[in-house]
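User: Show me a protein chain along with its predicted structure.
Assistant: Here is one chain, sequence first, then structure tokens.
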Amino acid sequence: MNAKTVLKGMIAALMFGAAADAAQAFSANMMTLGRTNPPIGHYEFCQQNSDQCGTNKSDAGPLELTQARWKQILQVNYKVNSAIEPETDQQIYGVEERWALPTNVGDCEDYVLLKRKMLVDKGFSPSDLLITVVLQPNGDGHAILTVRTDRGDFVLDNMRNKVLLWSETEYTYLKRQSTRNSGQWVKIEDDHSPAVGSLQ
């Protein structure tokens, strides 16, 4: 094992410890308020990819966040953020909204779809990988991936490589996929920041 690998392992371990401390200091897990409409882009994505949008039969509760799992989360977030160039759906497809698995370019939802798929391929349960719609401080809509764990809900974001507890971000949380069915969505009770609008 070379020095670079050892250093990466030490950094991941330190971040894992910091994540655990943060989860104890804040509201670690989101509260949801019942069903709501999915984003139109996700609804259309599910029509074409029904295998990724059904009932989550393997939901055994939040993921046990081990150091190995934490390292995989960090690696996937960084890998996708580095591999995909940001472009709008208008630039890529000539349409306002289209959710798709990206190959080299994509917008925020596409980053999320790829991260989710990669983590599922690594053995994560779909019930713990929840596409989430938020508002940025400027009021623009944005999509992130929430990883539901026994140490809190963590956010994978194409705007940063650091994985944060949801309550450490600057976002207002609106809705996310249901833990029971990846094709259904639920509203989020966001008590850590003021809501500044709505997003359908």
